[in-house]
Amino acid sequence: MSEQVKDPKTYPSLRNIQYSPMQQGEEQYIVLWDPSGLSAEKLIIPLNFFFLFQFLDGEHSLEQVGVEYLKKYGEFLMPDKLDKLIADLDQKLFLEGDRYETAKVAALKAYHEAPTRKPQFAGKSYEEDPEKLREQIAGFFTSKEGPTPAASANKDKLIKGLIAPNYEVKDAGPIYAWGYKELRDAETPDVYIVIGIGHAGLDEPVAVTDKDFETPLGVVPVNRPIMDYLKANGGAEIFADEIRHQKEQSIEFQLPFLQETVGTKKPISIVPILSSFPPISFIDPELKDFANQIEKFVTLLKDAIAASGQKVCVIASANLAHIGLRFGDNTAPTDFSFHRCMQTDLEMLKHVENMDAQSFAQFLITEQDKRHLLGFSAIYLLLKLIEAEKGEVLRYDREIVDQFNSTITYASAAFF
After folding, report:
1. Is-contact 274 246, C-beta < 8 A?
2. Which residues lie below 8 Å from residue 361, measured CB to CB, with a gap of 6+?
3. How far apart are CA 285 and CA 293, in angstroms?
4. Whole-Å CA distances, 416 to 146, 180, 353
5. Residue 15 carries which DSSP code?
6. Which sign, positive or negative, has the C-alpha torsion 154, 159, 163, 165?
7. Helix, strand or coil, per DSSP, at residue 89
8. Dist CA 82 CA 231 (whole Å)
9. 216, 133 contact by CB (below 8 A)
10. pLDDT score at 368
11. Is-contact 305 181, C-beta < 8 A?
């Protein structure tokens, strides 16, 4: 007998929604938002309501959710309050169900019909006016946190790979500049495999799109020979999550730098890829098929590059550790815990400099994801794809992202 499908109105299931703590006076709240960008709404809820979210998994009925609240707080949660919470979540597309599915179909249709992938963060994360954006980028290279003006020791060598942050450009711009100065001084190819992180999660390990990307500085086309090979040989699964590119920052943040450092000298094209898979994919027997998909994609992309006859540079758009209450830790970071995190980051990055993808993954498996390294998949794919002689971490920094000292770390690195 087939298992009966549970009614999502009675058994609500929360989507992959992000959250951060917020304090007003003595009261604590949680701010919720949709990292996929399908919903532009935010919802602020009391901290005690957030406890219930672990039970919004499609397996607990509303009645059972109320019982869990009673067990935790020793008081009844009035049905009208729970009903309103669920209605608010559904209205903002934070729940699985008909409203979400309808909105997703409409968004995918609009994405496919659009001539380009339009910039989503211009005017917010970086300047929207083209001339101001050029000035902003130039300023990152000359700021006191930016790279030294002297020519790179790798000047005129063929660059094979680059790691850059995917944090807000206006804040982390000088750290981007450290990597892109190496690109500016190097012998550069015409094609860039830009691998970002799918922050909203992906159903498959990677998501490829064949959309040209537009920025305030113009359109960056996808590389058609490589894209056509991927389409002909990759199967539908690598394009299944294509809509995730619509609102994702990872690739967009790299393109103005790429346009200014290389695109002003010669035509360039890209292969835009989002990735999302944990290090444990390679040792968990239950994730064996997932790991096989990853390795299959690496082989496919290498074959596509070889068939195109083109030289490429792989760019990984990736932040490193995410520590603090905002990212699920029980305590706020202290100066001591940040310095310990930094030491661990730098130890981990030695494996990256050595271009050892397996050791990089094993380091994080051993650590058991204690620092929530969200950039793993992009960096891992870069290490598997490039054939370089050496790697070098150029600059490391961090950003405090809320009033509770939650911290994101990032770095720039180059491979020749």
Report:
1. no
2. 279, 282, 376, 380
3. 14
4. 21, 13, 11
5. -
6. positive
7. helix
8. 46
9. yes
10. 93
11. no
* Residues linked to residue 122 through DSSP beta bridges, in sequence order: 126
Beta bridge partners of 315: 162, 194
Find the DSSP H helices in 92-202: 98-113, 130-142, 169-185
Region of 96 (left: φ > 0; alpha: ψ -120 to 50; beta: rest) is beta
Q: What is the pLDDT at residue 1?
A: 43
Place of tokens 């000047």: 155
At residue 132, the pLDDT reads 98
What domains can be seen in the chain, in order of their start residue? 18-105 (no CATH), 117-415 (3.40.830.10)
Angle between helix axes 335-353 and 357-367 (nearest 10 degrees) is 150
Q: Which of 178, 163, 164, 205 is nearest to 388 (CA)?
A: 163
Q: Exposed, middle or buried, 134 (CB in 10 Å: 0-12/13-18/19+)?
A: middle
Return the ∠ at Cα 273 (arms to 187 and 308), rounded to 5°.
Answer: 55
- Residues 220 and 213: their CA atoms lie apart, in Å, by 5
Q: What is the pTM of this model?
A: 0.88
Instruction: Give residue 51's pLDDT.
Output: 93
Positive/negative CA dihedral, 341, 342, 346, 351: positive
- Predicted pLDDT at 52: 94
Tokens (6 digits) for 412: 């720039």
What integer pLDDT is reported at residue 3 of this predicted model?
54
Taking the C-alpha atoms of residue 233 and residue 59, their distance in angstroms, rounded to an integer, is: 38
- How far is Cα 142 from Cα 282, in angstroms, rounded to an integer? 42
Q: Which helix (H) or strand (E) holds 22?
A: strand 18-24
Read out DSSP for 383-414?
HHH---S-EEEEEEEEEE-STT--EEEEEEEE
Could you say which residues of the chain have pLDDT below 70?
A: 1-4
14: helix, strand or coil: strand
> CA 236, 276, 367, 30: dihedral to nearest 10 degrees?
-140
Place of tokens 């068939």: 307
Tens digits of residue pLDDT in 347-368: 999 999 999 999 999 999 999 9
